[in-house]
Amino acid sequence: MAASRVDRRGLPSKLTSRWDSPWHGNRGNSRCRRERVLWCAWIVAILAWCGGCQNSPVAPNPSDIENCLWLWRSPTPQGNYLTRVAMRDAQFGLAVGYSGAIIRTRDGGTTWAAVESGSNSTLWGVGIAESGTAIAVGRDGTILLSTDQGRSWRIQDTGTNETLLWVSFADDHTALVVGDAGTILKSSDAGRTWTRIDGGTLATLESVAFFSRTDGLIIGESGIILVTRDGGDSWTRGESGTNQWLFGLSLVGDNLAYAAGWDGTVLRSADGGATWLPQASNTGSILYAIAFVDAMDGIAAGNDNTVLRTTDAGLHWESSTVGIGYEVVSLVRIGRDHALATCGGGIIKTTDRGGSWHEVVYTGRDRLASVSIGPQGSGYAVGLDGLVLATRDGGRQWATLNLPHDEHLFSVCTLTDEVAIIVGADGLVLCTDDSGGTWNGLDAGTVGDIYGAFFMDRATGWVVGADGLVRRTRDGGLSWDAQDVDAWRNMFSISFATRDSGVAVGDFGGIYRTSDGGETWKQANSGTVLPIESIHMISARIGWAVGSSGIGLQTLDGGESWERRDLGVDTDLVEVSFAGPMRGVVVGVGGHVLVTRDGGTSWTRASVGTRNSLYGAYVDADGGCVVVGDRMSILQCLNLGSCVP
After folding, report:
1. Which stretches does DSSP call E strand in 394-474?
2. If 256 and its partner were Cys, which of 252, 508, 579, 591 is the partner (CB 3.0–4.6 Å)?
3. Per-residue pLDDT tens for 549-591?
4. What is the pLDDT of residue 137?
5. Which residues does 638 contact at the CB level (< 8 Å), separation at least 6?
6. H or E element, residue 574
7. What average pLDDT does the chain have?
8. pLDDT of res. 461
9. Under 8 Å CB-to-CB from 287, ≥6 apart: which residues?
10. 605: buried, middle or exposed (CB in 10 Å: 19+, 13-18, 0-12)?
11. What's the CA gap between 298 and 548, in Å, rounded?
12. pLDDT tens-digit series, residues 451-500
């Protein structure tokens, strides 16, 4: 079986799909704005009327607005999946990844800082010359060049649209790039111009490396090995003796080479790559990376949490694990004891030759589903497996809270610095009145999943969820009334503009409206059978709903009728959020963020710098926005007006 490109380079499966089990297909976010107040039953006596989920008073940083940035707040320094790491020496290195991500280290990988690449392309390879010149390569023929040790980057003209996977310097001026469809590109001027080289194959070429200015190797699909003796101008076939896909390549001295790949394949060549002999790795795992520090001492790693070590030139391999639970994609040695690897989208480091590893760059692996920030800047983001992050400064900094719950959390609403509510799986309703120090349960009278919540005032609120669940409380959660809506249809989101007028949305195009505070509900014609994920009623008559396949719906009559609006995308949209009648945001799968400043007459796609799917959004009255999603992503824009043309 050939190596799958999806298996090889895609995000882990639990992060790619939109609402994978156990998320049960969908969920809806709460709506809680200035006019809405949530009241926890046990603090009725002390909770005064409050303004709902209001904007943070934290003033925008002028430099942030001027640069028109979406800023990574979690994880740091950034949250895109990292694919490759390279080191020039024991101190300086670079790592690259999805959405043009580039980070750099000056202390051997202990700390990292993000830099702007100027590209949104997925980057698969990075190489550094002794001079400090660096080249990053990736999707659609992307080549980025840095002449200042990775501080700034320029996009280069490559003349190809093929995906490029690896780059290597033969000397400070000569660089080779390889990729899909047998692509080989050579530069003789340190990456400024490129010439295509015929390697005599259309196979995917995974890795390239040089013994010297003239002698080098390429490995790739179906065991292909190419050898050059003239600095990459011409290539001949080496005899690998295998049809297995080869991914990792390590060269030692003038002639010794190791290659690793599918089904635990490890090959060794002592003649510069002309001939190869297999080695017994004693694993069936895919080995994506291999790195030798000298002729005897090597590490190989790959999927299934696999790490192999040898101290006898590969005659025997000792099995270990990275202890992180994700595949290792690339590996680089920093001296005899130290090594860095990209693992699970982050970076791990060993100081004992691969015996143990620890994370130095964590890019997050869990999903955040909802975010809400209160009037003085306190707020929460919630998600998978009981994950809760808290902010006290308007979303600039976040810290993880350890709740005694591991249910999936679908929606959060922050009311004051002290008070917030969370809803989730298995009928979970939690409320805090001490700034998240403790969370107490409210009994909504159901064990079904609760996907969304809305509170109109101190006492009256609704929750919606699985199997047509709609429940109302009039006493701050002490008791709940079941609402007769639709017993078989999952309900994801609910929004009220006045005490009487509200709309709930859900599966199979379900839209239901009430004009009597929820006493009765009537179905409206949505014009679709696709899931509608989110609803926001801006006023008693005007509202927006979004859903699967780019669905955008607007009502001008309180939800009685709905018109399809073209939002300019066909991806799944998960959340719509407005602050006032004009400014709104829609987020969805693949990092989509759509912004309007005219009440939805026009929508503009914002470039947020990630392909991570986004599920929650919060917009404040001053034009700030926080969005959350996969890989614990939290991004903040401090002024939407400055960041949208």
Report:
1. 399-401, 409-414, 420-424, 429-432, 440-441, 450-455, 461-465, 469-473
2. 252
3. 999 999 999 999 999 999 999 999 999 999 989 999 999 999 9
4. 98
5. 60, 61, 64, 65, 71, 623, 624
6. strand 573-579
7. 88
8. 87
9. 247, 248, 260, 261, 262, 264, 265, 266, 281, 300, 301, 302, 306, 308
10. middle
11. 49
12. 999 988 767 889 999 999 999 988 878 899 998 787 688 999 999 999 99
Summarize pLDDT for 105-119 with one digit per residue, the tens: 999 999 999 999 999
Q: How many CB atoms lie within 10 A of CB 450?
A: 30
**Global pTM value:** 0.87
Which among 527, 530, 537, 484 has a CA at the least distance from the CA of 506? Answer: 530
SS3 at position 425:
helix
Query: Which run of H or of E encompasses 85?
Result: strand 82-87
For the record, the structure tokens of 162 come out as 């093929």
Q: Who's near 1: CB < 8 A, 6+ residues apart?
A: none
Residue from 23, 98, 77 nearest 367 by CA: 23
What is the C-alpha end-to-end distance of the chain, expressed in Å?
A: 48
Instruction: State yes or no: pLDDT of 307 exceeds 90.
Output: yes
Asked whether 185 and 127 are in contact (CB, 8 A), the reply is no
Element holding 7 (H helix, E strand): helix 5-9
Tell me which amino acid residue 347 is: I
Pairwise CA distance, residues 323 & 346, whole Å: 13
Burial 482-510 (b: 16+ CB within 10 A, else e): ebebbeebbbbbbbbbeeebbbbbbbebb
For the chain, how many helices (H) and strands (E)? 4, 56
The pLDDT score that the predictor gives to residue 78 is 95
pLDDT at 124 over 90: yes
Output the CA–CA distances (angstroms, integers) from residue 612 to 10, 15, 343, 367, in the order listed: 12, 9, 17, 10
Helix (H) or strand (E) run with residue 513 in it: strand 511-514
Report how far apart, in Å, the C-alpha atoms of 84 and of each of 93, 167, 603 are: 11, 11, 35
Distance CA 439, CA 428 (A): 11
How far, in Å, CA of 451 to CA of 412, rounded?
Answer: 10
Please give the average per-residue pLDDT across 152-175, as a whole number: 97
Alpha-carbon distance of 114 to 96, in angstroms, equals 10
